[in-house]
Every structure is written in C-alpha cells, then in structure tokens.
Write a structure and sequence with these properties.
Kinesin; 2 domains; four-stranded antiparallel beta sheet; 14 helices; 42% helix; elongated; ATP binding
Length: 612
C-alpha cells in the first residue's frame, strides 16, 4: 500500500540551491523571536509519518536574515518560539495558542508502554502505535504521527530534566495571558482531552500543586497591588457556572438555587451571556478561594472506570477585571475592562471503556455531543481562517450546543485564546483524536481588541454635565409622578370608601329583600293552609247546619261545648291584606335595590374599576 499523502515530508525547494535536507537539524537549542511565528505553509503542524531527521527542516523554509532552523536563530534555554497558534502579538489578532501536556502513568497503567515522545527543542509531539510489529501492509496505520504545537509539556517523569510542573505550565501560558488581560484584552484558556487525562488537575490542581486557575488569581491580585501604588483603581468580579446535560447551572448560587437552570442570551455588544448568573466582587485571593471551593463542591462529578472523580460537566470560571486610571497631567481617565475565562471541559469518553450506565451514560452522551459540536466548530473556524478572503464564509454551528454558544467569543472572536490539549501516555485512539483536534484549533484566527475607553477632561466634564441634566430631569419627573401618584391615592382612597358604602348598602338591601321574600313565602304558605282549613270548616258547618235542619237538636251541652271556634272569613281577609302589604314592601325593596345597583355601576365606570 502507498503511504498517505503528507505534504510536509515531500515539499522540495524549487531553486537550484542546496537541498533543504542538507541543513543539519537543530538538536540542543531553543529559539528566540517570541513574536515571530513559523511561516504558514500548507503542511504546517499536520501529523505525518516520522521521517529522517533532516526532513523536519524541509518543512519550514528558511527566513531571510535568520539562521537555518524552525523559526529563528538560537537563543538561550528557557525561551521558545510561538508556532502557528501563537496569540502573542502586538495588534491583538492572531491564532489560537495550542499547547499539549502528557500526564504521568496512573496506578492501573503501571507497566504499560509509553506511546508519547516529546522533543523539548522543536516542541514536537510524536505518538507511536501500540503495535509497532504489524505487517508491512499496515504500515500506514502504525507509523508514528508527529505534531507541532506552540509548546509540548512533558509531565510524565518528575525526574526528567524537561519535566513540566504546574508552575512551568503557568509561567508559559497563564502569565502571558494575564499580561494580555492587564493590557485590556479578553482571554480564554480551556483544557481539552479524554476523561482522566489531567484536565482538572491542569486547570485547578490541588492544595500542594495549584493549577492555572488559582495561580492566575493569585498573580492577578499581586499585579493589582502594584497598580494601586500607581493610582490605578481595580475591581474584580467573579462568576462560576457549569454546563451539565446541556443546561447551565450556577455554582455560586447556594445549595437551594444551584439546580436552577439558567438561560443563555446574546447581546449585540457583549456576545453570549448567562442570564441571572451570580456575580461577586472580590478584593483578595482568599475571597476568590472561598467562592472557588464553594463552586467545586457543587460541581457534578462521578466515578467511572476511567476516572474515580470524573467531571460530568463543563465548568467555566470567569473573572472580570476593571482598571480605572486618572492622569492628572492630561486630565484624562482611562478605563479598561477585560475578561478572563478559564474552562475545564468534561472529558470525552466511550461507554465501553468508562463502564457508564444509566445516568452516567446519559451524562456521557451529552458530554460527547457538546464536544463533537466543539470539534465541528473548531473545524469550521479553521476552514474559515484558511479561506479568510472567501466571499462566502461558512456558517459556524455555535448554537448546536450550549457550550459552543457560550464560547463563541473565545473561539474566533474578541479574545486571545489558548487550548491545553491533555493526553494520556497509553491510550492511542483517544490521544490521536485529541492531537488532531488541537492541530485544527491552532489554525483558528482570533480578532482580539483592547477594551478600553479614554475620556479627556473636557469630555468628562461634558459627560458629567449631561448626566447631571439627566438626573435633574429624572428627579423632576419623579416628583411629578409622586404628586400625581399621591393625588391618585387620595382619590382612590375616597372612591374606595364610597364604593364600600355602596357595597354595604347593596348587601343590606339584598339581605332585606331575601328576608322579606322568605317572609312573603311563609305568609303565602300559611294563607294557603288557612284557606284550605276555612274551606273544610265551611263544608263541615254546612253539613252540620243541614243535619240540624233535618233532625231535632239532640246534642247535649257537652257535645256543643267540645266544638272549637273556627276562624271566620274576616280572619282570612286580614291575612290576605297583610300578604298584599308584604308584597308591596318587597316591590319597594326591589326598586331600591335596582337604584343602588345603578348608582354603583355609575361610580364604577366613573373611576374605571370593575363593578363586580
């Protein structure tokens, strides 16, 4: 089988001069010119099968006026030349800075084969296949892959001369980006890699070996103390949130609110942001440490086969630094506002290797979804950067996941960005995937600008006067509104009193009408009973009269005395007269009730309230 096409190994100079391969490869030196990046050739940084040493030089044309090498003339140890991904430039534009860090062997990996080789002089990272003794037909798949980044940190062996400690990682990334922050640039550093590859350790560390986040905070306040001596006032605000199962959760909101799902919005000026996110002003590192500890305790973590404390969410720690400097000579005020965004991404994982089931499996699925979207965004941005002059730029799928939406400004926007690719020394497939993502990320161009406002004395006086006029206008409007509101309250109080009186009157008439109606019905019932009783008595008297006329009276005095006097027709007429009187009273009450209701509706319509 033919070897894969790799332009890096095969670009030959067109000139008739000496062959590039004849130039000896530098072996024991670093390179200076930190502002000068490698020339952009199509083959730069692409993985390729490992070749003879001299072919490396052939990858990079020699720049006029420089010694042969990768990016400049030899320099003293301790310096390095930023590669394609360097964000270190004067005007703020540049590529994403990409560094790679390999972690030490874990306890379960002891005795395993190290697949990673790093050259501290050329900053190359080579990954070897775990089965080098394959057949010739498989050479394409097992050949070593070589990558070039801005920095390669070898943290595999603490006894090595080139061991990269937490401090050295900060000195080469964190310190530089903190410099950019103090200049007024937005910055972002995010750790990417497989689960268990050392991302959280790199970003957060532990008590004895703090990572990038705590070291950045400590050095930030050290610099602020120095600025205070130069009459520069500084304020620092922090926030801390996580993206868990494609939902944003506030890690500083307290135990009763941190499960609240927050919404992501986008501002035309500030870009994407989290709505209602807690933000606290801090004055020293101890306060930052308190909030940092609180947030770390609230993070979603779980144990898997790959990692005993696997992060199940993407955590974003943000510091907003505001610097205000007054120059008495020019009577001008300079204000800089910069944002430091430090991101600990959850690790990519495979269910077969992590042993995740149930909730852990669902978490892993969402993590892989967001990381896959991040990979697509990186690929799209890298392609857009390569076709910067194209008339039809590609659409970047930022909104396909919450993570990429929130990192929109950091990826290809107004920010200086660095990616720390964390890799394992034993996992070939995942490490190769991470290195490929990192290789694409270094091609992304950012457009960072200094976020500052300079106001002269005259402009400041004008602005103060405008603000004072606005305050006076608002105070006048507030006073007028207060007076109107007070008058409305008084009128409303009077209306409420009248309304209450009408309601009481209506209730009184309604209750009285109900009472009279019940009384009328009772009298009607009693009158009907009396009428029936009178009818029976009349028939009974008629029958007795008929009998008396037909037969001589034989009834004894006792029998006569036993007959009870019955009501007469006059009694019935009295009841009927009383019933008519009550009916007339009920009619009068109904008329009064109708008048009261009409008056109530008139008052309600006059004051604009419901008549219910």
């Amino acid at each position: 089988m033919s070897r894969p096409h790799t332009p890096t190994a095969r670009a030959r100079p067109q000139s008739r001069g000496p062959r590039a391969s004849a130039i000896p490869r530098p072996s024991s030196m670093y390179f200076d010119s930190p502002r000068l990046s490698r020339p952009k050739t199509p083959d730069m940084g692409r993985e390729s099968p490992r070749r003879r040493p001299q072919s490396v030089v052939g990858m990079y044309p020699v720049v006029a006026g420089q010694s042969p090498g990768l990016a400049g003339s030899p320099a003293s140890p301790g310096t390095f030349s930023p590669g394609v991904g360097s964000a270190n430039n004067n005007n703020g534009s540049g590529n994403v800075k990409v560094v790679v860090r390999v972690r030490p062997f874990l306890e379960r990996e002891q005795g395993g084969r190290n697949l990673i080789e790093m050259n501290p002089h050329t900053q190359s990272t080579t990954i070897h296949h775990p089965s080098p003794g394959a057949s010739k037909n498989d050479k394409r798949n097992v050949a070593p892959r070589e990558f070039y980044f801005d920095r390669s940190f070898n943290s595999l062996d603490p006894n090595s001369d080139h061991f990269a400690s937490q401090e050295s990682v900060y000195d080469n990334i964190g310190s530089e980006f903190l410099d950019h922050n103090m200049e007024g640039y937005h910055t972002c550093i995010f750790a990417y890699g497989q689960t268990g590859s050392g991302k959280s350790y790199t970003m957060m560390g532990n008590d004895s070996n703090p990572g990038l986040i705590p070291r950045t905070c400590m050095n930030l306040f050290s610099r602020i103390d120095a600025l205070m001596a130069e009459n520069v006032s500084c304020t620092v605000r922090i926030s801390y949130f996580e993206v868990y199962n494609e939902q944003v959760r506030d890690l500083l909101a307290g135990s009763n609110k941190n499960n609240t799902k927050l919404r992501v919005r986008e501002s035309p000026t500030e870009g994407p942001y989290v709505e209602d996110l807690s933000e606290f002003t801090v004055k020293n590192y101890n306060q930052v440490l308190k909030y940092m500890t609180q947030g770390n305790k609230a993070r979603a973590t779980a144990s898997t086969k790959m990692n005993d404390a696997s992060s199940r969410s993407h955590a974003v720690f943000t510091l907003v630094v505001k610097q205000v400097h007054f120059d008495p000579d020019s009577d001008a005020t300079e204000e800089k506002v910069s944002r430091i965004r430090l991101v600990d991404l959850a690790g990519s994982e495979r269910a077969t290797t992590s042993g995740a089931t149930g909730a852990r499996l669902r978490e892993g699925s969402n993590i892989n979804k967001s990381l896959t979207t991040l990979g697509r965004v990186i690929a799209s941005l890298a392609a857009s950067s390569a076709m910067a002059k194209s008339s039809s730029p590609s659409v970047i799928p930022y909104r396909d996941s919450v993570l990429t939406w929130l990192l929109k400004d950091s990826l290809g926007g107004n920010s200086k960005t660095a990616m720390v690719a964390c890799i394992s020394p034993t996992d070939y497939e995942e490490t190769l995937s991470t290195l490929r993502y990192a290789d694409q990320a270094k091609r992304i161009r950012t457009r960072a600008v200094i976020n500052q406002d300079i106001v002269s004395g005259a402009d400041r006086d004008k602005l103060v006067q405008e603000m004072q006029d606005q305050i006076n206008s608002l105070q006048t409007s507030l006073m007028q509104y207060s007076q109107q509101s007070q008058q409305k309250e008084e009128d409303s109080s009077q209306f409420k009193q009248e309304l209450e009186k009408v309601r009481k009157a209506i209730r009184f008439y309604e209750e009285r009408a109900i009472t009279e109606e019940n009384k009328r019905r009772a009298i009607q019932t009693e009158s009907a009973a009396i009428a029936r009783h009178n009818k029976l008595l009349t028939e009974h008297l008629r029958e007795i009269t008929n009998r008396t006329t037909a037969t001589p009276p034989t009834t004894t005095a006792k029998a006569t005395d036993s007959i009870t006097p019955m009501p007469t027709t006059a009694t019935y007429d009295e009841f009927k007269h009383e019933l008519d009187s009550i009916t007339a009273s009920v009619g009068c009450l109904r008329d009064d009730l109708r008048q009261s209701r009409s008056k109530f509706q008139e008052l309600a319509s006059r004051w604009g309230v419901s008549a219910a």
